[in-house]
Fold these 2 entries.
Entry 1:
Amino acid sequence: MTPLPASTLSRLECSNCGRVHEALKLQGLCGHCDRPLLARYDLGKAGATLKLHEMAGRRSDMWRYGEVLPVAGEPVSLGEGFTPLLRAPRLGANLGVDDLRVKDESLNPTGSFKARGLSAAISMARERGVAKVVLPTAGNAGVATAAYAAAANLEAEIFCPADTPVAFVQAMKLLGARVHLVDGLIDRCGAAAREAAAAGDAFDLSTLKEPYRLEGKKTMGYELVEQMGGCLPDVIFYPTGGGTGLIGMWKAFQEMEEMGWIGSARPRMVSVQAAGCAPMVRAFAAGATRAVPWENASTLAAGLRVPGAVGDMLILSCLRDSGGTAVAVTDEEMLAGVRLLGRLAGILAAPEGGATVAAARRLREEGYLAASDTVVLFNTGTALSYMDVLAGVPH
Ligand SMILES: *Cc1c(COP(=O)(O)O)cnc(C)c1O
């Protein structure tokens, strides 16, 4: 295995006001306008060694893209990323799409794509001298945090809603984290985590409140291009909670264009949300630039139960700039999607993954999708973590 390519991280830049922040310092939101910071790289230098057609022989995890990742030293790695892009012809035929593929993120460490973001964020936290991290979570991010904190020898304190599926809570505990069950939704957990961070000299790993989870998740965009031999699909369906992966892939496409991997064409990006928590769908339909938090959010897809996203402006501009759209599906439709992914593709999908099947069906019926479109669905996690929730559902 070749050594890890050197990071070309150059600075942090506010996604809203453009102010530049020091990348060598631990940073949260922009100190000026309270919006997310984005990592910027010396892409001229990165592109000199990171070449689309010279990737063979690199390590088979997301750190194969080391030039455009932030970590200077050894990353905290459990083998995250470089998940398969599976062809699913029977599911495609069922949906009326000739070329349907599933990016199967359930194969990541801890069973979801949250591993990518937390591998990057915890690597950077350790590199910047952090001893303790806190996090609000709906489940998967907490398990990933617990795992990477354990691997990095950091203390982790995690806040999740009291009704979080049992497997998540159990996994966090097995991985050595301190878990608090909070009476309320993720926003209440966020407040509790902020208090704990302020009181206990700990770093808050909430998504987009620090810049590096996004960097981990953007590698999904690099992998798509590499796995499709330099092409991009026509349409990407992404189950959207905080939107980190969507924003991350969009950023990756821009970086790849600057390095000459791809041209200026982009896939249409489709956000899929739950009918019981669809702030982006509502804001997109209204033509708004910001999303109003959703009241009484409710869905069994824990990862989609995010009433208000810090990255709302970035999500909405990505959907618009790509010619994409936003779709809400019911929990029943999601579960039907989970069953189809299982029976027609052999994929044990999380409800969030099932949601993308339901959205693709809807958009195919409405004519937004053509039979000839190349379509990628993201299955973001494994069904195994939701077995207690799924057990009560007829099938
Ligand atoms: C967190 C999560 C999502 C939402 O991801 P974002 O990038 O925050 O929008 C989707 N599916 C699963 C399984 C998740 O854990």
Entry 2:
Amino acid sequence: MVTPATRSDCAELDKHDPLARMREEFTLPDGVIYLDGNSLGPLPRAASERVRELVDVEWGEGLVRSWNDAGWFDKPRTLGARIAPLVGAQPDEVVVCDSTSINLFKVLSAALRLRPGRSTVVTEAGGFPTDLYIVEGATSSAKGYRRKLLYDGQDLAEVLDDDVAVVVLGHVDYRTGRLRDMARMTDQVHRAGALMIWDVCHSVGALPVRLGDCGVDFAVGCTYKYLNGGPGSPAFAFAARRHQHDARQPLSGWHGHADPFAFSAEYQPAPGISRFLVGTPPVVSYAPLESSLDIWSRVDMGRVRAKSVAMTSLFVTLVEAECAGHGLEIASPLDPEERGSQVSLRHPDGYRIIRALIERGVIGDFRTPDMLRFGFTPLYLRYADVWDAVVRLRDVLESGVWREERFGAPATVT
Ligand SMILES: *Cc1c(COP(=O)(O)O)cnc(C)c1O
């Protein structure tokens, strides 16, 4: 794509954008340019009605009968099957349940049991904190295990040895947006005799993910970021078919039992992916996700990726041209092939700048100590939005408005 040189070039691109109509599927507040869909996706227009239907009809009228009649009991599996194509999995390899943190604990514990005699779990020092904490918790709650860290800039080969049982990595770095080569690294881990768990929180819905083709063993991801499933919507877990029969996870709750309504005193894991379930699913939280997956079922992920690359590249080019001289540094890879669907900028006063920008209707976010993050979500963003966002960022920088005292006080959630 030739980089548009004016706002009307951007508007022209929007006119010919094959994804342009998808924007109508979302409710977005007037005057807001939403560049934080990598943290919390916006509301699918159909979701409000879907929630109302679930509450008023399925619950209000159906009552307990809806566990069967409205398919509540099977939601983790039916929605898992609908997420499967988005991550390159088979329909019976994914369940939707619990949070990413809990699912990581389950798949990690299962993976460790599949590698008896090995006691090291490798994860990245700069990974999303919950991944680090869960690896620490899982390795310290079972005897003899240890956590080993891969540091930024270090090659995976340096930490792999014949004691490594499992490697846990993020597909896209939540800070910089750096995209990892899933196929190559999974292969590298397998050649060292270990199992590979990918956290795809920042890649699912952002780009094509190919868990099956890459031979991935287990994966986890959330649905409230690029998938637009709503605040706190349930996460998912992937377990390759070849592992399902032997995989045992320690949170052996009744929804993972082979016959939950036998109420037997002995735990017998369900035959397939269902053994990764624990307890009663939060049924209401599945409703917005269903509306969101209705949208995703009509979307070509290749087109999403192409537009995402075009948008992040446009943003980088415009920031370099319009915002030079204000101390901003591009923290994301400049090669779009090595980038997810976000662009991060560094600035020592990043927190104040993002607050001032949000006040001007451009919503991005901040990650300590100095990272401004901007997510580019092709389903509801226009090229003209990218242009306008950079203009407003330039105005914030040139006016110095961010120096005002009110932008300094930290909010609870950044
Ligand atoms: C957002 C995110 C999570 C979130 O975990 P929760 O259990 O949903 O809070 C985990 N890992 C990564 C890499 C994330 O980006």
